[in-house]
Each structure stands twice: as C-alpha cells, then as structure tokens.
Task: structure prediction
Amino acid sequence: MTVNSQAVAKIRSVSVPLLDLKAQYATIRTEVQAAIDRVVESQYFILGPEVEALEREVAAYSQCQYGIGVSSGTDALLVSLIAIGIKPGDEVITTPYTFFATAGAIARLGAKPVFVDIDPCTYNLNPAGLEAVITERSRAIIPVHLYGQMADMDQIMEVAQRYNLYVIEDAAQAIGADYKGRRAGSVGHLGCFSFFPSKNLGGFGDGGMVVANDPELADRVKLLRNHGYRPKYYNKVVGGNFRLDAIQAAILRVKLTYLDQWTMARQRNAATYRRLFTKAGLVIDAKNDVSLDQEQGVIMPLETGLGRHIYNQFVICGKRRDALKDHLKQQNVGTEIYYPVPLHLQECFADLGYRRGDFPVSERAAWQTLALPIYPELTEAMQAAVVDAIADFYRHGAIAG
Ligand SMILES: *Cc1c(COP(=O)(O)O)cnc(C)c1O
Result:
C-alpha cells in the first residue's frame, strides 16, 4: 500500500452517523442528571414549576410574550389550529414538502390541507403561489421553516393580512432561527416548536411548545392544552391532554443554555462542508432551478442572507440521489431523505385530488435531496470523509443509478 492509499483507507474507515446524541449527552451528563433528580425528588411530574420556567425561557429566547408547553410538535400544531377555530370544511394552506404532521394536524380537524409549491432554492413555501389558492374557505397559512431557515415571512404575512388569514409558523426545525432580526415563532399569530430528540433542542422523549405574542390566543392554547377546564373540572371548551412533562422541561432547560453554542457549531460545520465541497470541485451552481445538467456534483443549501439559519439539516441536491445514499451507507456515512414523498402524493391524501406533476418543485426535491450529518459534535475529519465518499461516487464511476 502506498502512503496515499493508506491515508485514503484510513479516512474511509471513519464511520459518520447522521446524528450522534450520545456525543452530546456526554458533555452535559452531570447537569442533566441533576435536573432529572430535582424533578424526581419533587415528585411533580406534569406541568408545574419546571414547565413554567421553560415556557418563560423559550418564549424569551423566541422574542415572544407567551410560551405554552405541550406534548409534541404535532400537538403544538393541532392545538394551535383548534385555538384559532379551525373546523371541518375550512381550508388551511401549507407546503407539500414538509414532515407529515404539518398537514396531518389540519386533516385531523376535518379541515382541508391546500398545498402551494416550494421555492426551488430554499425548499420553503413559495409566497408567489399563495393568492391563487385562496378561497372563501381559507382560514390560515402554515409556513414551515424547513431545515432551520425561515420562510419568506414578510410576503406571507402581507398576503395573510390582506385576506384576513391566521398564520401559524411550523418552527419545529427552526428554534432560534431568525428572519430580518425576528425569531422563528414570533412573526405569525402562533409559533410551534418540537422537542423531538433529533431537533436542535431535543428532549429525552416527546415534547413541544406553542409561542405567541397575542395574550388571548396564548390563553386559549393554554386552556385547550388541559381539557379546556378552568377552574379544574369546570370545562369551558373541549380540549385535550396536550401537556408537557416536568422531566422533559427540566432537561430542556439545561439544553437551552447550550443551544446557541450548538447552533454555532452547526453553522461552522455548514461552512466547512461548503469549503470542502468547493475544494473538491463538487459544487453545482443552483441558479434558479434544481434540475441539473451536470452529473458530477451537488447543489449546496442556499442561505437567503435574510437571517440566521440554524441548520437542523444540511441538505444537498444531486443526481442519482438514491444510488448516492446507498454508496454512502456502504462507506458508513449516515444520511436521510427529508422527505421522499411530497404530501400531495401520500395515499392518505388521495381524496384531495392532487396528481403527480401538480407541485413539480416539491417532487424534484423529493427525488434529489439528501441530508448529510451536521450535528454539533461532528469533526472536520468526519466531514472530510463524507465529502470524500461523495467525490468518489460522482467521479470514480460509482455504478449509475
Ligand atoms: C418534527 C416536526 C414536526 C412534529 O414534531 P413532533 O414533536 O415529532 O410531533 C412537525 N413539523 C415539522 C416540520 C417537523 O420537522
């Protein structure tokens, strides 16, 4: 073996998971254990002081007056939609290129998800498509801040105001992101966060939060979170059990103090990828289209320059994506497809009447995008191994897929 091929073999043996929560836990174990102990000793497990403290802290972090801890990001969306009065027959406009829960929450209330295609550069809802789908039944818009970068909120809010629609931000992937200085969750009427373990602020189980600046809406969410009763056992409205556990809140309070540091590490990793991909000659200019003429290379995620991207995901776009994913798996590089089937083509939404071709940008994104490891503890050597494996795929004739 030559020195060089030895070096290559060494790099190749590096295993790079998509996410490594154990690495993060190792850095905060003592503090987290103390927080859990505190709750266990108090035997106060549902809502209570830890949840209230987290609500204040996340609200402040998100430039909001109010925070209401809930059971998941999905329930944050659901309870928000109930709070604004969404009922059967109403229409709620959103993107088809998102996690299922965004549209699932709408459908669960008997309302109709109405999709608008995404922007090819940011993968976020394209505001230019909004007006064409507004009807007398339209009640709300749910923009999703996909991968950690906020949607074009000025344009979305402008249309919403003109047609008197509510805006609920799905900020599940975007806690701490901002747009023109305004934090995710603070721009629309309500903002929804998820504390699913893989989110930037992840708990040790399910959890979520709704944030708001409007006191009446916040109060309504709070009422609905706990069966709609006030006082206890006197039910004003029909709510549900959308409560957050104290143990999750105590853990999340520890993690919140590290969030900015972790976000900066993600941003550093994103910059490192850009540098390594550029150096390897693998960067394809996105222009205004995700369709690729060249075979060899990938499109980098676009930063709009309008605010802070928190990189919940670092998503590239390239030809022969599925074969690339398989190749990376063989090289022990973890990747994921977010998301392989746009929501308008999901079986459960067949009755909405959408067809293949209705949202071409979302459909292309679903075929061509791939999320790479970007978690804060990733090392530059690991990132080099990822880029090297991708170079190997596009250059050295990995089998055509
Ligand atoms: C994770 C996620 C949700 C759902 O959050 P859960 O806590 O898993 O219920 C909703 N929307 C988006 C965009 C997400 O990424």
Residues 25-256 form a domain with the Aspartate Aminotransferase; domain 2 fold (CATH 3.40.640.10). Residues 72-74, 98-99, 101-102, 144, 170, 172-173, 194, 196, 206, 208 surround pyridoxal-5'-phosphate (CB under 6 Å). The chain has a mean pLDDT of 94.
